[in-house]
Amino acid sequence: MKKWIYLILFLSIFYFIFIANFFITFSIIIGAYIAFKLYKFYAKFKRNKLLDSKEKFSKSDLGLFIALVAKVAKADGRVHELEAQLISNMFDDISRVFGDSQKARTIMKEIYNESKNSSHDHQDIQELALELHEELGKSILKRRQFMSFLIQLAFVDNGISKEEDHVLLIISNALKIDQRSYETLKSRFENINHNKPKSMSAQDAYKVLGVSENDDMDTIKKQYRKLVRKYHPDIISSQDKDEAYIEEATAKTQEINQAYQVIKEIKAK
Fold first, then answer.
1. Could you tell me which of 197, 85, 70, 84 has the C-alpha nearest to residue 128?
2. What is the SS3 assignment for 127-151?
3. pLDDT tens, position by position, 20-55
4. Of 20, 169, 174, 253, which has the fewest CB atoms closer than 10 Å, so is most exposed?
5. What is the 8-class DSSP label of residue 196?
6. Number of domain units in the chain
7. Are residues 187 and 207 in the same domain?
C-alpha cells in the first residue's frame, strides 16, 4: 500500500512541477502574446484614425513634430538641399506605418509646408513645442529622440547657425529638456565635425558615392539621393535604438554630402 501511496505522491509532484506548471507558464506566454497583438492592433487602429483629417493629424505627436521640423529647417532663412532630402526621407519612414501611406505623406507635406511658410515667431514655435510635450507626456526618452532629430537636421548642413540654435533652445525648454542636456546632445553632433576631415580629394569623393568621373550629374545626383536614403537616421526604427545610432547615421550622411559637394564643384568648372 505504501508503495502505491509513494507512487501516487511522486506522480502528483511530477504532474505539478513538469505538467501543471508548464501549462500555467504556457498559458501566461500565450496570454501575453495575445495582449501584445491586441495592443498593436489598437495602436495601428488609433494611428490610422489620424488620417481622418489633416487637423487631427496636425494635433498628434507626429504632426506637431513635423511642424517643428519645418521651423528648424527654415530657421536660417532657407532649406538646404540635404535638409530637404532628409525631410523627404522622414516622410517616407513615417508614412510606411500607416495603412494608406500615400495619404499620410500628402497630409504630412501639407503640415510641413504650412508651418514652413507661416510665421516663425518664437511664441508660435514655443506653443507648438509645448503641445508636443503634452502629447508625449512623461516619456523623456521620446522627447530626447525628437530633440536629437531636430538638432541633427539643423547640424547636417555644415553646423548649427545662431538662428537655428535659438529655435532649438526654445523647443528644448518647452520639451522640459534642461540646458545641460541640450548642450550635451548638441556637443555630441559637434564632435562629428571635429573628427571629420576638413577636405576630401576628388578620388575619395567618387569612391564615397560609388560613381565614376565620367558619370553625368544626373547619374551622380541619383546615387547621392540613394545613399542619403540608405544611411539617413530613421525616426521610426530609432525608437528601439540608442542616441549613438543617430550620430553614426549623421556622420555617414555628412560624408556622403561632402563627397557630393566636392564632385559638384569639379563638374561646375
1. 70
2. HHHHHHHHHHCCCHHHHHHHHHHHH
3. 555 555 565 566 667 656 656 656 677 788 888 999
4. 20
5. S
6. 3
7. no
